[in-house]
Amino acid sequence: MHITQLNRECLLHLFSFLDKDSRKNLAKTCHRLLEVFQDPLLWSLLKFHSPVELKKDNFLLGPALKHLSICWYSERVKVCNIEDWMKNSFQKDFCKRHENTVSDFLLDVCSRCPNLLSLTLSGCGHVTDDCILQLLKNCPNLRSLKLENCVRISDHTLEAVTLHGAALRTLHVDFCRNVTQAGLERVRAKCPSVTLRADRSANMIPDSKPEKKMMLEKASRKLVQ
User: Which member of 136, 141, 146, 199 lies 3.0 to 4.6 Å from 172 by CB, making a disulfide possible if both were Cys?
Assistant: First the structure.
């Protein structure tokens, strides 16, 4: 029996075991398998391991997407988490090449995936509060939002959760250094049904402008004297 003689349900099941590249390559072999590749039922879950993968054409975005994960664990993530004013020219050039990649992708998700239930972002140092705000507004069924090592996420995201996260039940903001204890307490007070976790976030040193850092250093020296 040839693979194309299997019914659609069997083919979808077989495709589900393949990674995105393998699915795309198999879809190129014949029109019937291409139709299976384009079936929305195949794309309810998407996992990415670097921003580069977001630019490929080996997946489909649509209303069927329920669970999305973008987790970047490369050593290069450390560069993205350095404060902008502290980066050298090489680091700035590196970040510039992918600075908007994840945010642009998430904005695309906002317009095409209204039924999203869970989003996990790890190491996405350029994702902004505004991006998460738009996602909460456009994906009203979102129940789980897990953010880890996303340096630009701040209390503005926490405020967006209290305003637009009616369906949210799980919120993680781990190692997000610009999240404060005050912001976390507001979420706990306004959204008691949300399971909140913030490992290390409120205890890390937040970003600040160079001028402010210099003033703090001068004040510290005066106290010592």
Answer: 146
